[in-house]
Amino acid sequence: xxxxxxxxxxxxxxxxxxxxxxxxxxxxxxxxxxxxxxxxxxxxxxxxxxxxxxxxxxxxxxxxxxxxxxxxxxxxxxxxxxxxxxxxxxxxxxxxxxxxxxxxxxxxxxxxxxxxxxxxxxxxxxxxxxxxxxxxxxxxxxxxxxxxxxxxxxxxxxxxxxxxxxxxxxxxxxxxxxxxxxxxxxxxxxxxxxxxxxxx
Length: 200
Fold this sequence. Notes:
CATH architecture: Up-down Bundle
Order of helices and strands: HHHHHH
Structural class: mainly alpha
Number of domains: 1
Number of helices: 6
Number of strands: 0
Strand content: under 5%
């Protein structure tokens, strides 16, 4: 399974960036003329979370690079030996792939409303259809499962750390977004919250 992962993980990460970030960003910009990436460089809580997301992403890219291209150095990532089972790695990678499809579908259903961060300059529509009928945050839900799958695929101290960090950051981010959306959409968002759970 390790040989499959040494090829599959770099391919997956390229696909993830292309599908979940670059292509979706291009589509939104093409339709609206708005850059959907709205995390800035201020000292605010919003932007601090953005820094955390970027750091987590860089660490994940680094550990995949070491695992795939410099396997002799992988021991320095402190592998968790008792979790290294072939079936568990297969489940983890499968979970990552299913989660990517889920994320792409949810992003497509958001359409012009999709953002990375909280856009205070441009009001977006409240999306209630598709996967949003079952989860208020299906994209973040998919990302949480991606993090879990990645940890199971190559269990080590770094992937465990980025899984925990990412999960905490996403839980904070969704609460900030919910407060923001409540301020914009008011009763409509309150009714949405009463119908649909935060996660699933």
